[in-house]
Amino acid sequence: MEWKDYLLRRSAQLLLTVFFALIINFLIINLAPGDPAALMAGELATKEYIEAVRERWGLNKPIPERLVSYLLNVLQGNLGYSYTYLQSVSNLIAERIPVTLLLTLTSSIIAFFVGLLLAVKTSQKAFSKVDLFVSNVMLTIYSIPSFWLGLMLIGIFGVALRIFPTSGMVNVRSTGSGVFLILDIAYHSILPIVTLATIQVPIYYKIARNTIVEQSSEDYVSTFLMAGMSTSSIFKKYVLRNSLLPPVTVFALHLGYVLSGAALVEVVFGWPGMGRLLLSAVYSRDYPLIMGIYLVTSITVSLANFFVDILYTLLDPRVRYK
Amino acid sequence: MKSKLKSDNNFFYKYLLLWNRFKNYKGGLIGFYLFLVVIFIALFVPFLPLCDPYSIKFQSFLPPSFSHPFGTDEMGRDIFSRVLWGSRTSLSVGFGAALVSSIVGVLFGSLAGYVGGKLDELLSRIIDIFLMIPAFFLILLIVAIYGSSIYYVMLVIGLTTWPSTARIVRAQILSLKEREFIYAQKVIGSSTFRILFVHLIPNSIQPIFANSILQVASAILLEAGLSFLGLGDPNVVSWGKMIYSGTSYIFTSWWIAFFPGIAIVVTVASLNLIGDALVTILSPKTEERGAYA
Predict the structure, then answer these.
(1) Which residues share a beta bridge with A82?
(2) FRET partner for B225 with CA separation of 20 to 30 A, picked from A62, B13, B129, B157?
């Protein structure tokens, strides 16, 4: 019963968040200086087209009615029409999602395991020299701008050593297909994935290390020690297991950012994903496209948050009673 | 009057204690000294014997040498001078944004924590919702539509990152408001405003302080990202913008993008090292264990 209540409350919150994202989107475009219909229609639009846009989105009506027609449009999956790509915004976004996922999912998984492994190695001697050193190195890596790291990797491995391609997702000169195409994409994706994984490792390292250190000082550890269990088997059987939940949570929360998190790196590597799409939309002031991407991203993030919370209550019953 | 003096003393004494413990953290201390250097450069760069960062009188694409330690860029400007001047932009955006975020966060958080009840419920929901909104995209969107003066960038970053401060303040106030000295204030009839601003908020400032330092770091990274995308203030020297212009010349002149990036890493890392040490010191769990000491 309690769990049902929780689920209900959490769903209400999810809806509220999505609604809020919609409102922000709506306000940004409606409060922007100038005529919103002209903004939505683009710089090259004819007068007739601007009028058509005004009609479609109800921009000639007062604000509350406008909001209703905006919400109705979005509910029907109509995110507008991009005048720079001459395609519907929802199509454009759907096309780019898998391209971006290839980078973000792979790099998140790599970063998760590398961070966890490092944390396991260093946290067993918490506050030792090695532990403090690795912690500070991780903080420094955390301070590197992703786009700069990518650019430097291009400079080293692409330009100086000529091992990896410097840009794009496929070699434009080769017309490979099937296995060759897949290999080509994999080859092109190595540097961007390394970049994204590197800047994410500190996040997983930190949360995993702190949890392990915390768990190691719990009473049950000293009890087992007194009972004569070896430190390593306590660690393997109990401490590590109890420390997995927070890093897994962070991983899941990060999945919310899989669509937007790579934007800067995509730009550096000329990777044709969501980030680049957004940027070209920003440069050409393609408002429907910008707003569509923003909306899809915020909804993904809210959904990821929602599922993490629900998953948490299933894995850890204590959370429910909060 | 007497009691105010005493609480003031207490306030400074607390910071002395904090510094004494901070000294034991090597990483934090290195960060602190690095940061002093950065601050010094930002404050005194107009008085340093440097070339004009905007002057285009030199030859383009000169590699690093004795007269141009970081080389020159595509327009023949001295990169060393530009990197030093860029510290002003980064630090002002960083501190400005963190200030805005702290003010809004403290107001929201203390109201929610002190008043409690329905208002707390409402404000907490708003905080939760704001925490879920991807800040970078929102900032990008707003700056793209409304323009990108440096003050605007500050304000927008600050207004999208305040919820984490608000959460911390709320938790602090919740635990502080049950303490005796607050009851005493209520008994002698102090106003809510006075209790909040004279007693509760100053006493919960330390954790906010640690969090704000980390926020300065992330604001600097955000500004760099925005400028890299060409959405920063076009009228100031900015590290992100310098890296952006270096992108086109990575095949021939690596130094154009390299040095501004190093400047970002040094500045942001120094803040992160300080912030992380402070967070460790101030978390109640470390206090018990006496770690590091």
Answers:
(1) A87
(2) B129
For B7-25, what is the mean pLDDT?
A: 76
pLDDT surpasses 60 at B3: no
Q: How far apart are the C-alpha atoms of B123 and A25, rounded to whole Å?
A: 21
Residues of chain B contacting A143 with CB distance shorter than 8 Å: 217, 221, 264-265, 268-269, 271-272
Report the DSSP pairing between strands A81-82 and A87-88.
antiparallel
A32–B225 CB contact, under 8 Å: no
pTM attached to this predicted model:
0.88
- The token duo for B104 is 């809004």
Tokens 């939940």: give the residue. A245
C-beta separation of B227 from B150 below 8 A:
no
- Cβ atoms of A122 and A130 closer than 8 Å: yes
Among left, alpha and beta (phi > 0; psi -120 to 50; other), residue A176 is: beta
Start-to-end C-alpha separation, chain A:
14
Q: Give the B window 175-234 contacts with A, CB below 8 Å.
A: 217, 221, 224-225, 228-231
Q: Are B59 and B76 in contact (CB under 8 A)?
A: yes
d(CA A82, CA B240): 29
DSSP state of A218: S
> Burial code of B96-132, b = ≥16 C-beta within 10 A, e = fewer?
bbbbbbbebbbbbbbbbbbeeeeebeebbeebebbbb
d(CA A105, CA A262): 10
List A88's β-bridge partners, or say none. Answer: A81
* The two three-digit tokens of residue A138, written as one number: 């991780």
* Structure confidence at residue A65 (pLDDT): 81
For residue A294, give the nearest of B137, B224, B273 by CB distance.
B137
pLDDT at B6 over 80: no
Q: What whole-number distance in Å separates Cα of residue A27 and Cα of residue A157? A: 45
Q: What is the pLDDT of residues A71-103, one digit of tens each?
A: 888 888 888 888 788 889 999 999 999 999 999
- Contact residues, chain A, for B272 at CB < 8 Å: 139-140, 142-143
Name the residue among A77, A72, A70, A75 with its Cα closest to residue A37: A70
Question: Would you tell me how many other CB atoms lie within 10 Å of the CB of residue B282?
Answer: 16
